[in-house]
Amino acid sequence: VQLQASGGGLVQAGASLKLSCAASGRTASINAVGWFRQAPGKEREFVAGINWVITKTVYEDSVKGRFTISRDNAKNTVSLQMNNLKPEDTAVYFCAADRTPWLLPIRSSEYDYWGQGTLVTVSS
Questions:
Q1: Is the Cα torsion angle 117, 29, 57, 20 positive or negative in sign?
Q2: Dihedral of the CA atoms 8, 44, 22, 74 (nearest 10)?
Q3: Alpha carbon of 87 to those of 1, 15, 69, 75, 84: distances in Å?
Q4: Of 16, 105, 17, which Cα lies nearest the Cα of 56?
Q5: DSSP class of residue 100?
Q6: Which residues contact 88 (CB under 8 A, 6 or more apart)?
Q7: Following DSSP, what letter does each residue of 12-81 receive, concatenated?
Q8: Residue 49 exposed, middle or buried by CB count within 10 Å (0-12, 13-18, 19+)
Q9: What's the pLDDT score for residue 43?
Q10: Better pLDDT: 75 or 50
Q11: For 88-117, what is the mean pLDDT?
Q12: What is the pLDDT of residue 93?
């Protein structure tokens, strides 16, 4: 499975961005996708995740109400709609995929596949 993240950019505080994670290869084997981010000098952290087998989404507290994760099955794509962006959202964002059908992991070590990052910069 290969993952391709895109959609990052430079925006002002309060603006919106939509990140996309496109999967290719043996996509039928994956059941969940998570978005993580890593700011300079900080550890990678979970942002949001979706498992379409158990119909579950999870968000990190600081993004609840601002970010929405969704899946387009026909396009093998998982998107992260980010609204009301804040400077503290600045980070490299990564998408990851997991094969476990009954779990929605929030730890990076539990994911099987990773895409490259896409940089989101929010200016104040």
A1: positive
A2: -110
A3: 32, 11, 20, 31, 10
A4: 105
A5: -
A6: 62, 122
A7: ETT--EEEEEEEESSGGG--EEEEEEE-TTS--EEEEEEETTTTEEEE-GGGTTTEEEEEEGGGTEEEEE
A8: buried
A9: 96
A10: 50
A11: 96
A12: 98
Give the Cα separation of 50 and 42 in Å (integer): 24
Tokens of 63: 């993004």
- Per residue in 67-86, pLDDT tens? 999 999 888 999 999 999 99
Q: What is the pLDDT of residue 44?
A: 97
Q: What is the model's pLDDT at position 88?
A: 97
The full length of the chain comes to 124
Tokens of 119: 């940089």
Tokens representing residue 13 in the block: 């505080």
